[in-house]
Amino acid sequence: MTIHANTPGAADLSRLRIDRDARPPRPWVAWIVLALLVAAGVAVYPSAREYVNERRAPEVEVAHATAVVVPVGGSAALPVLVATGYVVARHSSDVGVKTGGRLSVLKFEEGTRVRKGDVIAEIEHADIAAQLEASRRAVAEYEAQLAQAVAQRAEDERSLERQRALAKDGITTNASLTAAEAAAAVSAARVKSAEATIASARARVRVAEEALENTNVRAPFDGVVIKKRAEIGETVSPFGVAGQATREGGAIATIADLGELEVQTEVSENGVAKLTPAMPAEVKLQAYQDQVYRGRLRQIFPSADRSKSIVEVRVTILNADVHVKPEMTASVTFQEDDRSKPGRGSAAAAPAGPPIVLVPKRAVAEQNAGVYVWVVADGTATRRPVTRGADRLDQVEIKSGLSAGEAVIINAPQGLTDRAMVRVKGA
Questions:
Q1: Taking CA 110 as the corner, what is the angle to CA 252 and CA 298, rounded to the nearest 5 degrees?
Q2: Dist CA 283 CA 87 (whole Å)
Q3: Has this prediction a pTM greater than 0.85?
Q4: Which residues form the domain of 237?
Q5: % of the chain surpassing 90 pLDDT
Q6: d(CA 72, CA 76)
């Protein structure tokens, strides 16, 4: 077979060369890389396995055991009943107008402090003021007429005396004496009429003054305006105005005495028997859960609501501060009153005894006549037997087996085993 020099194949073969300087292949590099990967996998495997186990661990909710210090020889002021309600002022009033009209003056805003008798609003009263002025001028006119009538009466009485003196001497006639007596009687009647007219005119003045006063809205007691219900220019009425939802029943403002605040709450009929007069309580506001206020039961209402089977009660807040505001949501925890029990003094005065450990009821479980809780430490759940004591509302007293501050699982998941890993919710 003949290879032609001008063919492409011949030209390509002529260019082939052997590179005698090329380095031989090194298969050991691949083994080194593989070894490094294996070493890294071995080093990372425990951490990865632990991470996977943590992710697969059930998520649990925990609560910390709390302690209540007990006075020696007595019991602590532990809760016996919890109720929720709203903060209200013991003295509160929706202040309205006595007469209808258009508001011309408002002297308050929300938060304005007012004193009893202060004018906080005025209704347009130009017409009433004019009527009052007319009534006063009428009184002045009638008083002038009375003065004329009194002067005329005095003149007629003097004329009568002269006619009587002349009649004794036989100088005048009986007709003249009779005329003088009649004139004196008429003058006296005119004086009485003028006096009655003045009394009537003065009564009309008082009516006008009262009508004018009714255009003023005054504060019924010392307090603070907590709600503004009207604005200048609005037409108001003692019975409210249709279509204006800013007011209720004609009220233009709500005034409350913030010096005495209390919680209005409701207790079921089954729980009323646990309450006693002046029972101590703790009050917590939903807005400030960390702040605890001292309270005392002031009143248990004399009637119940049969549709709801509840009784309304009022609890006075003894140490309210600026954070406590009307209409805030509050919870009330009624407590045992050691002072009402014979042989027991005040918890504050008695020496402290061993603390009582409390946990939520949902953290305590029973199985085979044994009581236990799940304690969480370092991400591990441990089953621990405990001795259960008395129930305290939604908590349980733990007499032994648990210390204050330890974290226990609430509503432990099914299948949880001792020493199992868990994830704490929110951690």
A1: 85
A2: 10
A3: no
A4: 95-123+217-256
A5: 46
A6: 9
